[in-house]
Design a protein that fits this description.
By secondary structure, the protein is an all-alpha fold. It is globular. It folds into two domains: 258 residues, no CATH class; 124 residues.
Length: 410
């Protein structure tokens, strides 16, 4: 597949705003959506570049879907494109979750939103299952790749092996045996290197990330500073997606008195119902922590500041990593062993995403031991049948089914 001409900055920005508004279903669904729009429909980059970009982003800490958006943006329009793509991919979900958070603290939990969220779960399972199939079909070309994907699927499920450890193992295997995993194809003309501007952008992103943290530590020294330090730390540990770090965040947030266990679960439901990265749930944690401990400040103002601190320190580090490493990825791919390492990571990613699809489906279909939720199974099958209609109709299908089920007592 040959890549088309570089898009104009306006059409490029509009596409990422569109993706930010419709990227439901978790990282696997986000990645599949980006592939469909950028590779299949627009043909702005080719298959090899997309696969190498995905493997590269899987190695970095932080939300891989946002990082993939940032890296694709950099390939097409340099640091400016990376900043636009990464920001627009997150902004709609951040704004929507803020609105939902305000509604949550003022109105409390209503049965109808809860039913909508419950109906959404089998649809998310369908979205991730479809994405896992598509990514596996594209990336698994050799017996070794299939083997490493199978290991990445089984080991976390059966023996709770950490995802970061699997990624490191895949990287080492690809480096040691590059002929089994190397990303195929030669260099393509879709992207250009912007080394000087990118290095400057990495430094600016680093300062934008750390300067507010330093100011809060110097002048505020309270809850906002605690949130800035904590979420900056979690941004360094988030390998393998949001599901890896969320148990740690929940444990710390509850122990610190920022949020109750029930509210944490509500926040996860709200985050699942918004587009964009699931890790946006950390914004809800920051919002509610500041709402509960607002001191002498107006609660909504302080809660909004808490949400902003959590979002800023969660997502800004991703721009630092991408801008710092982006100019070197093409040279890495030209190296046979490094290309093999990225190929191994890409193969393992398909297995990890398939495992995530199984985990979601398990919780959707078996809400309690020995009981199968056949209504959820039916919604899952309907979502699979309707997947060609697009992500948003599938989301509405599941949510409305959940509300109808609640009204009918099914």
């Amino acid at each position: 597949m040959k890549s088309s001409a570089t898009p104009t900055l306006r059409s490029f920005a509009l596409l990422w705003l569109k993706l930010g508004c419709m990227s439901f279903g978790g990282p696997a669904a986000h990645i599949a959506l980006m592939h469909r729009e950028v590779v299949e429909r627009k043909k702005w980059i080719d298959e090899r570049r997309f696969s190498s970009a995905l493997g590269f982003c899987m190695l970095l800490p932080g939300p891989e879907a946002q990082q993939l958006a940032t890296y694709i943006g950099w390939m097409l329009h340099g640091a400016k494109g990376g900043a636009i793509a990464g920001a627009l991919f997150v902004l709609p979900s951040a704004l929507l979750l803020w609105v939902l958070s305000v509604g949550y603290v003022y109105c409390g939990a209503s049965p109808y939103p809860a039913a909508f969220l419950k109906g959404l779960l089998p649809v998310v399972a369908a979205l991730v299952a479809i994405a896992a199939f598509r990514i596996a079909r594209r990336s698994l070309k050799t017996p070794a790749g299939i083997g490493i994907a199978a290991a990445a699927f089984l080991l976390p499920t059966l023996w709770n092996i950490p995802v970061p450890l699997l990624l490191v193992a895949a990287l080492i295997a690809g480096y040691a045996a590059p002929g089994w995993f190397s990303l195929s194809g030669g260099p393509t003309p879709a992207a250009r290197n912007f080394p000087h501007k990118t290095g400057r952008a990495a430094l600016i992103a680093l300062l934008l990330w750390l300067a507010p943290v330093a100011l809060l530590l110097i002048f505020e020294r309270g809850l906002l500073a605690q949130l800035a330090i904590f979420f900056s730390s979690t941004s360094l540990l988030t390998f393998g997606g949001a599901y890896v770090i969320l148990p740690f965040v929940a444990q710390h947030s509850v122990a610190s008195g920022w949020i109750t266990p029930a509210a944490m679960l509500d926040g996860l439901g709200l985050a699942e119902a918004t587009p964009g990265p699931l890790i946006i749930v950390l914004q809800f944690v920051g919002f509610l922590a500041a709402w509960n401990q607002h001191g002498g400040f107006p609660p909504l103002v302080f809660a909004t500041l808490g949400a902003a601190v959590a979002t800023w320190t969660t997502f800004l580090p991703s721009f630092v990593w991408i801008f710092f490493w982006a100019p070197h990825v093409e040279k890495m791919l030209a190296n046979r062993r490094l290309s093999g390492a990225l190929g191994g990571v890409t193969a393992s990613a398909s297995g990890i995403i398939a495992g995530l699809a199984l985990w979601i489906a398990w919780h959707a279909f078996l809400p309690s031991p020995g009981r199968t939720d056949w209504f959820a199974v039916a919604v899952f099958l309907a979502a699979l049948a309707a997947h060609r209609a697009g992500v948003l109709p599938m989301i509405l299908l599941g949510g409305l089914a959940g509300v109808i089920r609640s009204l009918g007592g099914l």
